[in-house]
């Protein structure tokens, strides 16, 4: 067993055994599950990052707790690999999968690496795709000016900038991550503007009656929520018309969003000057690797797997975590990972198992200003019925065509929102 922390300098490695692409929660869960049953089988973990183990949901809670990226690391990639007896190829990117020869092509993920342009190959007996999903940056949000909070390294750079004192941050997209990070930054003493196309946060998931309560709670906390607006442009302000103090700030242009797709009146466009912009505008899965391997892939939801085995349609290739979709739905939550990983481990090791039984996890917003909990598969549109409605609590059920409950949302105003 060897633990390498950089791209392999030899042109070919012939590790074989089980190869896992991706060292997020999904990849590490698979390693834990395999090692719980088999201490010997060779495992190679390939990842574009350092492989450090951390709990990603903490990224929307850490800034107010004054935690840096390194505080969040539970074990470095090297230490975790040693403990699990895994060969770690960190800072290494898989660029191609040949499913016929069962070989992967690798390059260094570090541009400064002298072997950056070299390729290496590695063979696998069983391959697990745990490559996650990456943030979507609409054209109006240039990647070089805009942050995301989908990875600890990028989060660490943002956290360092924000640690220098109170700043104004615009967050684009009020889904779960955007709404959570907004509260976290507010609690850390920053001025926060949260902008969304819809009138209220979480509008793609919950009915208007429920989201109106979330919008009210967010605003009453002091977050400047701009609902019903689209950001059309973000540029670095260099023009001293903006005033000397504002040079270097980011200029966010936004205008009312016409959900019917009609052009909005340019006169109504407004500008916000902020120190940072965070994009929280959704995730997408890169189809290049699965497509190269002949793995069935859905551009909207990710890699398609067979529900009880988590096998893809290509021999000896499995998928787990944010990159995979099950029963036609992407499932980008932590809770199901342990059971998914256990099934993959048993299937790979040839052990008897009853198969993965997918149950949508409970969804819980981590905000303190309002408690939002959903079960089932909530979606904005549909036949939502109120079962409880008081000032403190709202409970609604989503009924399917047979009047069966397919989702429930419970919203409560906590007694002490600042606890
Ligand atoms: C801010 C935030 C808060 C969240 N909060 C919650 C929560 O409260 N509850 C909850 O259930 N879920 C939450 N989630 C979702 C949850 O964290 C994710 O579902 C989970 O972490 C996904 O893990 P993953 O391993 O599938 O993907 P990732 O963590 O994205 O890992 C993918 C890995 O693949 C590697 N990789 C990608 N492509 C390649 C390649 N070509 N070659 C080599 N390596 C590659 C990457 O370097 C990375 O190591 C949150 C997510 C975010 C972003």
From TrEMBL:
Family per similarity comment: Belongs to the FAD-dependent oxidoreductase family.
Domain FAD/NAD(P)-binding: from-to ranges: 18-333
Taxonomy, superkingdom: Bacteria
Upper classification of the organism: Bacteria, Pseudomonadati, Pseudomonadota, Gammaproteobacteria, Moraxellales
Swiss-Prot/TrEMBL keywords: FAD, Flavoprotein
Cofactor or coenzyme needed: FAD
InterPro entries noted in UniProt: FAD-bd_OxRdtase (IPR050260), FAD/NAD-bd_sf (IPR036188), FAD/NAD-binding_dom (IPR023753)
GO molecular function: oxidoreductase activity
Designated name of the protein: Putative pyridine nucleotide-disulfide oxidoreductase
